[in-house]
Amino acid sequence: MLVGGLLVLLLLAWTAWTLTRLSRLEGRVARAWTALDTQLQRRAGLAEELARDHPAAVGSDRAEYLAAFAADARRPIDGDRELAENALGRELRELPQNLPGVPAALRSDLAGTTTRAALARRFYNDAVRDTRALRRSRISRLLRLHAGRPLPRFFDIEIPLDGAPADHNHAENPAR
Amino acid sequence: MRIGLVCPYQWDVPGGVQYHVRDLARTLRGMGHHVEVLTPAEHEDSPADDFVTFAGRAVPVPYNGSMASLQFGPLSAARVRRWLRDGHFDVVHVHEPAPPSLSLLVCMIAEGPIVATFHTAFVRSKVLAAWGPVVRPWLERISGRIAVSDFARRVQVEHLGGDAVIIPNGVHVAAFADGPTLPGLRRGVDGPTIGFLGRFDEPRKGLPVLLDAMHTVLRRHPGARLLIAGRGDADELTAQIGEDLRASVSLLGELSEEDKGAFLRSVDVYCAPNLLGESFGVILIEALAAGAPIVASDLDAFKRVLEDGAAGVLVRRGDAAALGHALCDLLDDPGRRAELSARGAEVAAGYDWAVLARRILAVYETVVLPGGPPVGADDDPAEELPTAGRRALSSLLRWGDG
């Protein structure tokens, strides 16, 4: 009897604690998504500005593509944001290196925004991973602690973290 | 930006993480940010910059093959709460939060954006496999994770369940690049000299291999000298050196920060014969910044810093003959030394604190939402137990509604 009561108490305490964790994680995922969305929107905006105001530096063909991809990233026609962001990212990476005639402020804005978008994507996916790990645990599934909420999705876009002397990810060199 | 840094190791004891936090704090302050540091200290009256707050003493405990600074209890928690509430930080940046330390305590108490830097790369997987799940509920409050190396990142991924961006350790490049040399030891003039720096009584630093290699070096360069700097038992070392080498080896003892720079600017070649267990190798970056050509063993961390041999000569670890020949070849070839020196300066520039602090700021700016509230502290559970219970209950009900 006593043991049974103790077990129920423990289970209740554990449930309350897990719910606190879940709601905290929900907040973290939401904040990380806001950060990622902000940076991606800003990137699309800067790409549009670049295409509109400096078509000569970009090349007029490219400028058209860039404007189209940027618009699609803001409002993906087929609803696939990841695909649209990837297309825009690829287009931005293929721009000429020094962009003659483009103000330094715009160039550094674009570089800074790309870096921050890469960080934000990493942190968002981290938050999603932590949430999914907790939601997957057996007891939280059994008790349906998620209360029918959708599982947060990873946001998989290709956006390299640049500018790092050691920020490439080659594992131990098998040749040695 | 208002930034709160947390160092889990005692401030008045020398150590890599302490230096990292100190240099980061000074660099960010130099850029005009408001930075404060919370750290344990052995002695409350130890001298420190005025932006440092001491959070009491920590008790060293063995953790994962090295020592962690255990710090819990109501006194520490109260100091953490006060520091967080008084600081009004936009972001709190804890260092090495996985061991049971001040950093973990801050993760438990702080409410708001937390960034963490993971330094450890030595892993006893059994310890971490058991410990990781225990601290997970608090580590999952961290919004942005940084690892100082690929190895530190791997610890994250494999044992603590998360990914991290890599931002390496920094050095103040200018402090090593410019300045005097040690008296009577100018590079390229009073030589040839080979430098070694580190705890010479630790076998993993590899000094015995270098001493062995010196026999080879002395056959081809009879005037060559080995300069040994660092802590350790000098008598024991003298006995280890042996009669034949004694005239060619000088012990410099432990060096101050300034003397370390002068030492690295003086030597013709810097040698890092380490056998294992170096997670990063800040000393190599310092040597590169000081323009010293490097011969190092082929540890993964060293290969990374020396760009697989482009910025320094790599030798199979523990191979005294190969080390001796590599040193001789480099001493024979002033052109190659100049080339390595020039490449080294370029590599070191990427590790300058000014560059790295900007990258860390980008992390802060990513986790801090504009207009968000400052970091706060949760309520003291001892005083607020009834509230905590009510809160848990209400979160239970709220969650059910959604």
What is the arithmetic mean of pLDDT of chain A?
A: 81
Summarize the amount of helix of chain B as a percent range.
40-55%
**Topology-level CATH name of chain A:** de novo design (two linked rop proteins)
User: What's the count of strands of chain A?
Assistant: 0
Q: Uncertain runs of chain B with pLDDT below 50, 5 residues or more?
A: none
**Shape assignment of chain B:** elongated
Number of helices of chain B: 16
Query: Any idea of the CATH class of the largest domain in chain B?
Result: Alpha Beta
Q: Tell me the number of structural domains of chain A.
A: 1
Oligomer: heterodimer
> Stretches of chain A where pLDDT falls below 50 for ≥5 residues?
163-176
* CATH fold call of the largest domain in chain B: Rossmann fold
Tally of discrete structural domains of chain B: 2
CA gyration radius of chain B, whole angstroms: 24 Å
Distance separating the two termini of chain A? 64 Å
The CATH H-level superfamily of the largest domain in chain B is: Glycogen Phosphorylase B
Would you mind describing this structure in some detail?
The complex is a heterodimer of chains A (176) and B (402). Chain A is mainly α and 176 residues long. Chain A is built from six helices and no strands. Chain A has helices spanning 2-53, 55-58, 60-74, 81-93, 104-136, 138-142. In chain A, helix 1 packs antiparallel against helix 5 (104-136). Mean pLDDT of chain A is 81; it is low at 163-176. Chain B is of the alpha/beta class and 402 residues long. Chain B folds into two domains: 2-170 and 354-382, Rossmann fold, CATH 3.40.50; 173-345, Glycogen Phosphorylase B (Rossmann fold), CATH 3.40.50.2000. Helices cover 45% and strands 17% of the residues of chain B. Chain B contains 16 helices and 17 strands. Chain B has helices spanning 16-30, 74-87, 102-109, 125-139, 150-160, 173-177, 207-220, 234-241, 243-246, 257-266, 282-289, 300-305, 320-332, 334-349, 353-367, 385-401; strands spanning 2-6, 34-39, 52-54, 59-63, 66-70, 91-95, 110-111, 114-118, 144-147, 165-166, 193-197, 225-229, 249-253, 269-272, 294-297, 313-315, 376-377. In chain B, strand 1, helix 1 and strand 2 form a beta-alpha-beta unit. Chains A and B meet through helix 1 and helix 5 of A and strand 10, helix 12, helix 15 and helix 16 of B.
